[in-house]
Every structure is written in structure tokens, then in C-alpha cells.
Records
---
Amino acid sequence: MMRFENVKFKYPTNSDFELIIDNFEPKGCTAILGENASGKTTLGKLAAGILRPSSGAVYYHGEDIAGWKLGKIGRHVGYLFQEPSRQIFAPKPLEEIALPLELRGMPKEEARELALALLQEFELENIVNSTTFTLSRGEKQRLAIAAAMVMKPRFFVLDEPTTGLDKPRRQILAKTLKKMQADGMEILIISHDRDFVEIMGADIRRMEGGRLLDEKA
Amino acid sequence: MKKPDPRVIFALVFATSTFAILIRENLAQMAGLFALVLACAALLRVPLKQLFGRLKRLLQILLFVAILRSFFTPSGLVLLAAWGLPLLTTGGLSMGILVALRLLVFIVGASIFTIYPTRALIQAMVQLRLPYEIAYMVSIGIRFVPQMAQELRDSLIALQLRGIVIEELKLKKRISLYSYLLLPTIVGGLRHAKELAMSMEMRAFRAKPSRTSFFSLKLSSKDVILLILIAVAAIAGGFIL
């Protein structure tokens, strides 16, 4: 579904770092482990089209996404930021999920019904009337995932999804992701948390100095 | 070239910004003032290429403001008319350019401060008799700007990744969308400010009524000459206006 081919990427502000990936095709559930500044988040952002390769290409279903607008990529690929509060913009959870649907022309009532169903699916019905900015980190994260799921992406990138979550919350997250995977979604997890990616049964790869190592971690 | 004392730059930016406000109609004077500020910034090795690169969107807004202003100032020769009504005149065009140049004088002038470390700017403000708390707040405020810009960019990316092609939205929807995006940035900014204030209190900020500083700025003879030049130029400029 997603394929990296001879991808090179350099930040304009950091000439010391270069990400080089010859060939990478994440399938099912894939996890990228590695130390800080090894290029994990950069890889995730390239997969979601937030960053574009300096050379080479990222293909989605055989099509180079270089010319795609971010909005078009978002209809196929979901992305969870390392800090979920950075991707929550509406003051109410229902609005957070329904707004993109309304912006795409869905009638308000229908969008809100769908949003409510999604909140229930993610066990967030108790926060319907809360203000998003006052939610706990775990709630914000589940809300961010629910909001990303509304577009029914077929590929989901999660950047450090377990940061700040306690063990029970991690288990809930793993359960949610496994269900999503069972529904046919492919998942790319960027993490430091080996225990979590093992629970997920992910194909674990290791990154070091901007290179994806060949051997399985 | 050794950088002048930051207080010299404060005097320069204060003088040029004041003149940018005082020049009301004379386009040649405003163009001259802009050229002067630009030359000073170039001499002080402000990365102007980078600055204008970052300001691409703002330059578009400036152009829009200039055009809008030109439509509302009918004087001089009519360049564009519809149904007998003058839409664009030479006077209006000149006024639009003047407004854009005025804003550029402020922006390029302020960019000169970026060549100094924050500590030097705080010290300059303190030695100009500004209370330390205010000087420190100003420096923190400046430090927050890129962070808030990043948060705004992240919100915009997150929204697009939910399948929204912003360019396809109608203007009304687009405006309401941007108002949504501002909210988390403002809330985030307030939260950061609160946390930072608590952290400063924990480290006994303002525990003593006055502060001493090992680092202090001294005006060199070159700085004094520059200050005199700025003062003379400001007085001469006042007479010309």
C-alpha cells in the first residue's frame, strides 16, 4: 500500500542530518524503534506527506504522492502527532470530529450523529460536553485518534503513541489499534516503547542515524 | 564589522519608525526612508533573503492592502474606471505603495534586532532604564512567536490530514476555519505563559527588589558617533517634514 523508494530527505536548517531509505514497504503493523534524532518522526512525516522527499518517492497504491495536496493524502492516511493537543483545534469533542465532515459538505446533523457514534466507539461519550483543552492526555489522544478515524484512512501513522500513558491506557490503545488493524487498516508506529510494539505484534524495524537498518530489531 | 551597541539600534529603529508614521503623503520620502533602513540592515548583515523568503505571505497581504488603499484614495489621474466612477488613480496607487513601504520599514527595522542575542537586548533595555521584568517579558514574548507559529502550522496540517483541501473551500468556510485554528494557539500560548510563570516563581524570580548583572554594555566611541549621526539625521528629517 505504502512504499518508499530511494527516498532521501534533508532539513534545510540541519545539514548534518540526512534520512536515506532505499526501499521500505510497511505492511500490517510495522513499528520503527530507534534513539532520539535517529529520523523516526521524519520517516512518519514523509509517510503522511507532511514532509516531502528531497529525492526519490513515496508511493501510495503505486501512485507517487509528491503531487498530492495534504488534504488529498488525509483522505487515505491518518496521522497522530506526538503531542495530541497540537492536533485538536475545536473547543468541543463533537465539533472536533464533525467539523471536517461539515467542511466537506456533509449536513450538520448527519456529521454530528456520526461523530457521536465514533465517540461512543472510543469510549469517550462521557466527555461529550467537556472542553477539549481541559481533557487528560489519554482522553486527548483517544479523541485525536477518533478524529483521524472519521475519514476512514487505510494507513495510520502514530508518532510515539504511548508517551505519557499508564499501563491500563496503553492496553486500551493497543486494543483499539488491533481492532483497527483487524478492520483492514495498516499501521506504522514510531516509538521508543518496545513492550507496546511487542503487544501489538508489530514487525519491528530499527532506525539509526537516518538509516533504516536491514535487520529486524 | 563589529556590531554596534544594541542601544544604537534601538535609537535607529525608534527614529525610522517615527518617521515612517510621520510621513503621510510623500512617496519619495518614504521610499528614501525604506532604502535607508534596508541599507542599514544589509550593512549589519541581517539575512534579508531569508527574511523576505519568510515574509512571502505577508508580502501578499501588503500588496492586497496597497491595492485596497489605492482604491479608496481617489486623486490624480484616473488609471481605471467603471461606469464613470474612478476605481484606481495615480494618487491612490501612490498612497497604496506608501502604506506598504511604511509596514516594510517597521518589519525590516525590527529584523535588525535578530542579529543580537536575547541577553544583550534585555541588558540594553535595562540600561535604558526599562524595568527588568518588562524587558524580560518582552524577550520571552519574542521567543514564543516561533513556537506559536509552529503550533498554528501543526493545527493546519492536522486539519488537512483529515481530508480538507483548504484551497477548495469557499471563502466564508475558509475564514471560519482560520478562526478555529487560532483558538488552540491562543489557549496553548496562555498555558505556556502560566507554566513559565510558575517555573520562574519556583526559581525565585524577583525574590530581591533589585538585580545586579555581571554583563553590562558599554558605548564605544563609534557607538557615540553613530548616536550623534542618528540624532542629527532625525533633527534634519524633522525640518524637511
---
Amino acid sequence: MTQFWWVIYPYLTLAIAVVGTLYRYRSDQIGWGSKSSEWLEKRFLRWGSLLFHWGILFIIVGHVVGLLIPVQAFDTLGIHRELYHRTADLFGGLAGIATWVGVLLLLIRRMVFDGVRRNSSTADFVALVLLFLVITLGDMQTVIMNNAVGPYGYRHTVGPWLRGLLILHPDARLMVGVPIILQVHIILSFALFAVSPFTRLVHVWSAPLRYPTRAPIQYRSRTGFRR
Amino acid sequence: MRIKAQIAMVMNLDKCIGCHTCSVTCKNVWTNRPGAEYMWFNNVETRPGPGYPDEWEDQGRYRGGWKLYKGKLQLRSGGPVSRLANIFHNPDQPTMTDYYEPWTYDYENLIESPKGKHQPTARPRSLITGKVMDSPVWGPNWNDDLAGGGEIAARDPNLGHMQAHVAFEYEQAFMMYLPRICEHCLNPSCVAACPSGAIYKRDEDGVVLVDQEACRGWRFCVSACPYKKVYFNWNTHKAEKCNFCYPRIEAGLPTTCSETCVGRIRYLGPILYDADRVVEAASVTDERDLYESQLAVFLDPSDPEVIAEARKAGISDAWMEAARRSPVYKMAVEWKVALPLHPEYRTLPMVWYVPPLSPIMSQLVNEDDLSADGYLPTIDQMRIPMEYLASILTAGDVAVIRRVLLRLTAMRAHMRQKNVGDLESSRLVREAGMSIAQLEDMARMFGVAKYADRFVIPTAKRHDEANLEYQQGACSLEELAPPEGILPPLVRPGGGRV
């Protein structure tokens, strides 16, 4: 079972995510996008979307720092365990709460407003509910458990496990004994990766980073244009 | 010189009777699909009025178009970085309430109701939620023919800076129609605002189109267009806009709205312009210079240097010939009687308007006794205030409006008195600055308005196309209305679905 959840399952979901995304990109350009519903409802979206998106961008950076950078690197830099955890607790916690409030608002909005609900597909709800669960569990660990029970040293267990996974040397034993909240958080996160190609979540791959540097007015020839 | 060609349009407002035929034929061709029901690529507004969408000219509210920022052209909503910072929530995007909630009627109830004491009714039902609506409260032409009176008409953003001149007492009320489509601007702010680069302007004919496969639904085009002529399809989650009926234009046919206009108010023809001078023209400091600066971007198709450059740029002789015969070039450049819509938005729009004249003529009581010169003072006392027309067509420059009205008046006076006496020496014709030949040419163009004179549209160069046989009969619209967006099930009061 350990092997399944911490080796087979992550690779399986990641494979679905990669292959699924490529397939969707090739076959469904017309459906690729963020599926905005701002036209139907704007007030809740403003708070929900802004809190959620900026929060989750911050949290992604936090996860990279916390999981992909080995604990030894922090030690060499002279950042102690105590300082690290306090910082992570404070900023991660605040961003976590903001994101959670945001995703909650978005979920309520999607269920309550008639126009938005009727214009939502099952995939929209699956993505949103999964996000809500993942963020709730993450916040439970960071905000509640860390302060109630004490910080958990994930940099010695989850961190090395994830890095091993990424360099194709997974070690499932590292995940034994990890708090159950974190375990479910991780499993649901990989589920989110797996469903993402089949939902609106594909829009994250279309972040228009080239936009600020391109010419403002775009001309295209009627016949000569090649994508 | 980077020479490009564009098929441009002129609408002669003098002859618009506000019948909405253009809107209806356009809708039947392009926007009778789920998600597009509320879109009017072509709509006809009664002015004064808030227009559609609500108060679209109020750029303090929608922040569309361009502005000068430290002497340089910038989108009114801010630079590219601030746009990306707003990507999670577009503060300027209009919502359904700014347009209207699209609805249909419960027609089935008329057929399927059991026999009863009362006539069955077809109640309105929302196309968004499927619910029965108690009463629709706003629509795309709710204030047609000044319906709603001074209360609604007063919401016209153009009236803001001319309150003193306008009264809504019955005796002084004025009214005109303003049919609107996408302006297919030379400096389109929607194109500049698109983070995905999905909106583009075509080299060959200047049509501004949305690449539906590249559109990611960020919606900045919707808010950046000061004319509010890019729409968000809530069903496909992509932007859509007037495409100038490009399949027809490519075949040398007029757009649907032009073809079906019963008043023959629309004219189509090529204009050549220098793409290198567009930004410079849009960046002049004084808003009132924008009309002249846009005229300076247009090129004379009879100029040998322009002809040589055009050939180098791959513009065919057929296009050059059409550009020389173009009614749009005549009205905009030669006669200078057509004017751009809201040049102060700095987008250099390419659908121009001949301002309406009729209301002043109806004020004349003793037209038979009036000499040609007698018309002159009436121009300044017309029913539609010149300030109002100037606010719409010349960024407030009344002198330009006056000149155009003078020319149109001279044309009328001349044609009416053609058999009465020679007007060549009259003050009216002299002040209009037109020759008798030009006036008669103009009268034929506006009055007779023959099909072949109104529409001079060269066909697209077909031999450039790679897959002509394959493209024949293909319809790019088929994928735009996926099945998940079909009519929502009807919800009758009491909750039962049918």
C-alpha cells in the first residue's frame, strides 16, 4: 500500500496530467481557457478570485521553497529551524487563509448564483471542490496543527520524498509516519493534477508572459499566417 | 511608407430611419446562438440616450480606448503590466446588467395549455437561467424613438458637457439614429489589450478578427474597446465581435447590414493608408486634431508614388482601381462630409458618419420664398444642436460639423433650385467650398445611391489561398456553440421543469 500511494499513484497521476494536457492542447484549442464567468457575476468574483489567485501564487512559491530546497541549504545559509518555521507559519499561514477564503467565496458563488451555476460543468465543480479540499487540508496543517501541536518537520520527510520522485528515485518509506492530514493533502493534490487537463485548470499553462514585450497592434495576413 | 488597404464604411445618418433591419439581418447571420443572444454586432441607437451597452461612451466608467500618458499613447486602462496584474478580475469589464438579460418567450404554453377560463400567455423566460422572468427591465433598444422620455435620454454621456443647450421639453426635443458596428480601427485598442495576441488586424482588408482558437477568454478586449463592440460569449467563454462579414467582403459582396439597409445609407469601399503613420496620428496632443491627423494617414490612390508603393506592397490593380472609385474615399477625403465616431478615443475608427441634416430643414416655414442664401442662418439654428453632433463626431469641434452641414445644405439647395436659377455665385455654395459638379456628384451618391456606387468592393486575391477546394463550404462557426450551451430547461414558477 505504501508503494502504491507514494510511488505508483503519483507517477500515474502525473502521467495523466502530462499526456492529458498535451492531448487537450492538440485537440481542443477552442475549449482551452479560463472559462470566465465575470460577465454573469462580478462582485463575489472580485474578492474570491483576487484572494484565491494571489494567495495561491504565493503558496506555490512557498511550496517550492519548502519542498524543493533541501533543509541542508537552509542550514548552510544559517536559517535555523526555529526561524524557518516561524516565518513559514506566519506568511504561509496568512496566504493560506487568504486562499481558503477566496476559494470558499468562489465555491459559494458558483453554487448560489443561478446564472453561474447553470453555466458550470461537472468538471468546473470537480476542480473547485478538489481545490477547496486541498487548500482546507493544507491550512489545517499549517494554521491549526502547527500552532496547536507544534511544527512538523516535513523538510526531512515530504521534501526528500518529493525530490526523489522528481529525479526518478522515489523512496516511499520517507512518507511513513507523516501526519494523516498531510498525507491526504498530498494524495488529493495529485488527484488535482490528474483531473486538471480535463478542466478549466489548463489556463495556468496559458499565462500570457510574452504580452508586455510584444507589439501592441498585431497584423496578420489573410493567407500567410502560420501558427 | 508601409501601405495597407482597408475596406471602410460610411453611414449617411441623414437617411437612417431607425428600422433595425441591419440589426436583425446581422443577428440572423451571426449571433443567433447560445451565448451570443445578447450580442448585437450591429445595433441602432436612438440618440440622445444611454446607448447599448449602458452609457458605453462614459470612459470614466469603462476605461476603453487610448489616452496620452506623458506624451505617449497608452491604453486608458493602463500599461501591459497593470493589465496582467488585473488578469484575475477585470475591474472594467461590463456585466450582463450593463447589456441586458437575454430572454425568449414560453411559446409552448400557448399550444400546450389545457382549455381554461383565460387565454394562455407566453411569459418571458431568461436564456441565462431558464427561469420565468416577471418582467424584462432593459433591452438593447429599450429607449427606441426616445421611449422613456427625458428620464432615459438624459443619461446620454454626450449631454454631460452641454447641459445648458439641451432641454427635453416636447417642443425642443431632438432625436437621431446612430447605427453602430465594430469600427475596425486603424489603431485598435482591443488588439493592443489582448494578452494572447488572439485579436488581429488583417493586412489585406483591415478587418479586425478574433482567432477563436487562440482566444483564452481574458476579456481585456471587451473592456479596452471604447465602442464596446467586442462581446464575451458566456457559453464558449471567448470574445466575439463584428467580423465585417469577411466571407462576403472577400467575395466582393457588401456586409449583410449594408446589403439589407432599406434606406441605402451604407457605403463600402477601400481606403489606402500608411501603417507607419498610425501611431503618430493617434498621438497628437489636441483631441480636436485627431480628425485631421487621421485624414493625413489616408493615401491618395491617384498619386503615382502611392500607386508604385502599393504595387510593391502587393496590392493588386483591381484594388487600386476600386480605391479610386471608392465612395468612402470621396465622402471622407474629397468632400469631407463623413466624420469618424468619437475620434477622441484615439483608435482611428474606420466606420464614418455623415451627420444628419433633415431636422433643420423641417423648421423652414416658407421654403418657397427662401433664397439659397436664406438657408445659411438656419444651419446654426438646427433642431439637433451642433454641439451634440460635435460631441459624437469631432471631439467637440463645432466648426467641422458646421462645414459639413453647410455642404449638405448647399447640395440640397442647389438640387432644389437647379431649374430656378444659377447658384454658382451664391454665398451658400461659396461658403460650402464645393464646385457645382461636386455637389451634383454628391447628390447622386446620397440621393440616388445606386448599388454599384454604394459598394465598390474588390474581391480578395484567391490565388493566395493554399487549400481552396478544402475550404469551400467550410463553416468556422460550427464549433462555436458546443452542446453544453443549448437552451436551458424552462423553470416555471413552482419549481417544476419542463
